[in-house]
Design goal:
With 208 residues, the protein is mainly alpha-helical. Helices cover 37% and strands 2% of the residues.
Length: 208
């Protein structure tokens, strides 16, 4: 029949030529080879055997899976309902993603800002995160705040094996450079170092 598709071949010409048309084995489709047919038959037999094994398993399986939730709650956690709250002081990213409007990105931003502050003490601090969705605020609460404290009497001015005093203080959002310099200066005035009257951080670092 493929021969009949030749461009310009008429029906009359085809009927006249049809008795003389033969196609040798070399031009048969490869799928007609015995080896290929055997491979196809084996694949089909394996498929049927797998299906039969599954049907046998279903006949003897008595476990009924719990399907209280119709979605993957690990990838798509169930959101809080109105009136429910997350403790902002201790929540991790997994808990934070339960808040409506809070996805993985905002959850990481909340945790990172908590580290920068040394811990949250009020829900309103979330508004200091640029672009934070304020509609999510009613779902947060603060219970037993766990804030990080810095002992100014023992913190070192210079960078050693521990973070320097300047690095510790500058990581806190509410402390600006002038405040850090003043606190550092007040600490230095009680030290054995004499003749230090400047409050420049550049001068402080030169002492290290």
């Amino acid at each position: 029949m493929d021969f009949a598709r030749l461009y310009g071949l008429t029906r009359k010409q085809y009927r006249e030529l049809e008795p003389y048309i033969t196609i040798g084995d070399d031009y048969e489709p490869a799928s007609t080879l015995a080896s290929v047919q055997a491979y196809i038959a084996k694949k089909e037999a394996d498929k049927q055997a797998a299906h039969a094994a599954y049907e046998a398993y279903k006949m003897q399986n008595t476990y009924k899976p719990y399907k209280g939730n119709d979605r993957d709650t690990l990838r798509y956690p169930l959101k809080l309902k109105i009136g429910e709250h997350i403790n902002l002081a201790t929540a991790d990213t997994t808990q934070l993603k339960k808040v409506p409007g809070i996805g993985p990105g905002w959850a990481r931003a909340i945790v990172n800002y908590s580290k920068r502050l040394g811990g949250y003490v009020t829900v309103g601090q979330l508004q200091e995160i640029e672009g934070f969705p304020e509609e999510a605020l009613p779902y947060f609460s603060i219970t037993n705040p766990q804030t990080e404290k810095i002992n100014l009497n023992t913190a070192t001015l210079c960078s050693t094996s521990q973070a320097s005093l300047y690095e510790l203080l500058s990581s806190k959002s509410y402390l600006r450079l002038s405040t850090i310099e003043r606190k550092t200066y007040q600490s230095l005035t009680t030290s054995p170092i004499k003749g230090l009257y400047t409050r420049s951080y550049r001068t402080f670092t030169s002492l290290c």
